[in-house]
Amino acid sequence: MVETQQRQSVFSFGYSRSADQDSARPVRHPVIIVGAGPVGLAAGIDLAQRGVPVVILDDADRIGEGSRGLCYSKRCLEVLDTLGAGEAVAEKGVEWKVGKVYFKDREVYEFDLLPDAGHKMPAFVNLQQYYLENYLVERVEQLDEVTVRWRNKLTGVAQDTDGVTIDIETPDGPYQLRADWLIAADGANSTLRKLMDIEFVGETFRDQFLIADIKMDADFPAVRRFWFEPPFHDGQSTLLHKQPDGVWRVDFQIGWDADPKEETKPEKVRARLDKMMEGRPYELEWLSVYTFQCRRNERFVYDRVIFTGDAAHQVSPFGARGANSGIEDSHNLAWKLALVLKGEAPASLLESYDLERIQAAETNIGHSTRSTDFLVPKSPGDKRLRDAVLDLAVEFPFARRMVNSGRLHTAAHYDSPLSTPDTEDFGGTAKLGDPAPDAPMTDASGKDVWLLNALSRDFTLLHVTNGAAPNVPEGVSLITIGEDLKDKSGLFAKRYDAMPGACYLLRPDQYLTARFRSFDRDRVEAAIARAKGATHG
Amino acid sequence: MADLDTSSRFDNPDAAFQLVVDAHRALDAEASAEFNARLVLLLANHIGDMDVLKQAVEAAAKTAR
Ligand SMILES: Cc1cc2nc3c(=O)[nH]c(=O)nc-3n(C[C@H](O)[C@H](O)[C@H](O)COP(=O)(O)OP(=O)(O)OC[C@H]3O[C@@H](n4cnc5c(N)ncnc54)[C@H](O)[C@@H]3O)c2cc1C
Fold first, then answer.
1. Hey, CA dihedral for A20, A25, A26, A28, is it positive or negative?
2. Mutate: best of A398, A401, A403, partner B, most B CBs <10 A
3. Which segment of A3-7, A177-181, A248-252 scores lowest on mean pLDDT?
């Protein structure tokens, strides 16, 4: 995203000198993360919670360059919940699950992203990105193993067989650090990507959007509303989202030739908004113009430098896949890196990060590209077909399903060598290579708990009680469904197609990696070894 | 895999062709193109088979002058 315009900082943090800056030789850390955006912060917390000491560097000393990211998906919230920030985000955010699409002055399509009850987290919440980042910084401050060094700008990188040396600039002058592993979370304009001469290949769309965050008293519902060619914005698209604090996000398509300077003049923006808001008073909070790209690095792992978030891949905002998928990157990486650092898995396990997260990036880029193509047709024929879909959608349900105003982020699925292929039939919504579906449970003392909150940070085996006590391998947490957790609602049984004796092996990132109709220690051991990268091929 | 049926399928091909032509007769070039876009999408959905659709797209591309 190329952003222009007014920046306001919402939360500031001070620079403080680190003892490492006084060392004659570069001090070595197991993991250094470059970038304290949502992705770098999430990675830092995740690793720290797994006992890995982490240093995060950020060139700024503040959060809040406008609200930017705004819609956080159910899976992202579930990951944030494991980091100790999910409840704060869900509580502060505006929940929504329904999207409405309009063409001209008519509603043509409505979708419901989570028609099914019995999950802790909602389909989506909207929240200004600076709040998310601030909750993550607050969490970092509670953890001894992770610190953020503000106003530490990475300016150079060199790697050899056993580590990475980096150059850093600070208000006190330059210093160097060594890391076993360096995580690049330095955003779409990644310094590391440039220094390492990595190509960022993909597509740029020939259009621009004007974003306005406005403060307004309005009783509009908390639904995502998207207009194609509304009467109030001649011929172009508009998107409206509700945010906390009485703030609304409006995105106006303004075309490739529009001049960002001109378009962000308050009087010009007001002229557009006045037509849309029909006389309701509002205040302008933040304005920006962006263009969009869909692209990625060819690989995400370059020996000891690992790319995550926008530094690794970039999508258009339609579909809310940027921060959501970046946070999934961090969650996929953290447990693997922790096992490698503890000597419990070979470094080759990290190849599965590359493979799984490139699969996810391809899916995200595919969806984002198709949505953006629908919004920004590339030829007259393209536009005609798009308009034909919209015209037909007014009357015919089949065409409504072709209307694409953004296919919103859902959890990544991995076709992964780490998974043990099913040898027995399983129905239900749980799928191998997907995150474990949540379910409402009660614990042994009768207290209501959510299944996902009961999982450990290590491998977990869910075993459906049949009287036997499975003798699980060391390092695996056993949860007996029917004893440790009871399934009063029956939703666990339904979602997992559970029968007495069945067991489900979950990775430390909650992904279902193997399942069996009955417990067999050898099979479980083999599945764990495989998920740790031992036998893959 | 289903195949695109390119054999002649109407009892009265002239009438079928005329039906579509009549729908275009009063339209200018743009309206006619828009009409075709709607018609294509309706028929594609009726067929509802990606293999057949793909073959039809290829056949149409191949026969361009
Ligand atoms: C208008 C808009 C709407 C969006 N809407 C959504 C949405 O609804 N949902 C969603 O999921 N995503 C959304 N996104 C995308 C989301 O904002 C990004 O995907 C997300 O911020 C990426 O996080 P990151 O941590 O990878 O990078 P960033 O947030 O860009 O963070 C990178 C950090 O690295 C620091 N840094 C950079 N270079 C250096 C250096 N050399 N040394 C030290 N530090 C450095 C920067 O200061 C920054 O703090 C939207 C984006 C825009 C612009």
1. negative
2. A398
3. A3-7
